[in-house]
Amino acid sequence: VPAALLGSALLRRPAALGAAAARCAPARDSHGPPRQGHGSSKAASLHWTGERAVSVLLLGLLPAAYLCPGPAVDYSLAAALTLHGHWGLGQVITDYVHGDVPIKVANAGLYLLSALTFAGLCHFNYQDVGICKAVAMLWSL
C-alpha cells in the first residue's frame, strides 16, 4: 500500500510505544552485521552453509533409513538430528534470552542437552535396535 494513501499520521509510531521502546534494552539482531567480538561475516556465512548442508543431509538420510537401515545410517541420523536440534534451539536462545548471565546459563544448558541427546541416541543405537528399526517398529503397530 503506497505511503501517500495511508497518510503520515498512520505511519508515525504512537508516543507511548516510542517511549516504551526507548526504555527497553536494545534487542539483539541475529540477522544484522556481526558486532565487535561476535565473529566475522565469513564465520556466519560458513555457519549458515553448514545449517543448510545438515538440512539437505537429513533429507537424504530419511529415505536411506527406510531403504537401507543399518548402523551407519543410525549413527548419521543421531549426529545430524542432534546438530540440527542444537542449532535450532540456539536460535531460540538468541531470539528470546536476554542479558549476559541468562544467555550463558541457557547456552550451557543447550550444550548439556545436546551432549546428552547425542549420547542417548548413540547408546540406543548400540544397546538397542537403533533409530531406523525403532521407527519401523512404530510404523508397524
From TrEMBL:
Gene3D superfamilies, alphabetized: Fumarate reductase/succinate dehydrogenase, transmembrane subunit
DNA-binding among keywords: no
Pathway annotation from the record: Carbohydrate metabolism; tricarboxylic acid cycle
GO molecular function, one term: heme binding
Principal location: mitochondrion
Entry GO CC: mitochondrial inner membrane
Keyword annotations: Electron transport, Heme, Iron, Membrane, Metal-binding, Mitochondrion, Mitochondrion inner membrane, Transit peptide, Transmembrane, Transmembrane helix, Transport, Tricarboxylic acid cycle
InterPro entries associated with the record: CybS, SQR/QFR_C/D
SUPFAM superfamilies recorded: Fumarate reductase respiratory complex transmembrane subunits
Binding site for a ubiquinone: Y96
Places the protein is found: Mitochondrion inner membrane
Membrane-topology annotation of the record: Multi-pass membrane protein
Domain of life of the source: Eukaryota
Residues where heme b binds: H84
Family statement: Belongs to the CybS family.
PANTHER family xref list: SUCCINATE DEHYDROGENASE (PTHR13337), SUCCINATE DEHYDROGENASE [UBIQUINONE] CYTOCHROME B SMALL SUBUNIT, MITOCHONDRIAL (PTHR13337:SF2)
Function: Membrane-anchoring subunit of succinate dehydrogenase (SDH) that is involved in complex II of the mitochondrial electron transport chain and is responsible for transferring electrons from succinate to ubiquinone (coenzyme Q). SDH also oxidizes malate to the non-canonical enol form of oxaloacetate, enol-oxaloacetate. Enol-oxaloacetate, which is a potent inhibitor of the succinate dehydrogenase activity, is further isomerized into keto-oxaloacetate.
Protein's recorded name: Succinate dehydrogenase [ubiquinone] cytochrome b small subunit
Species of origin: Rhadina sibilatrix
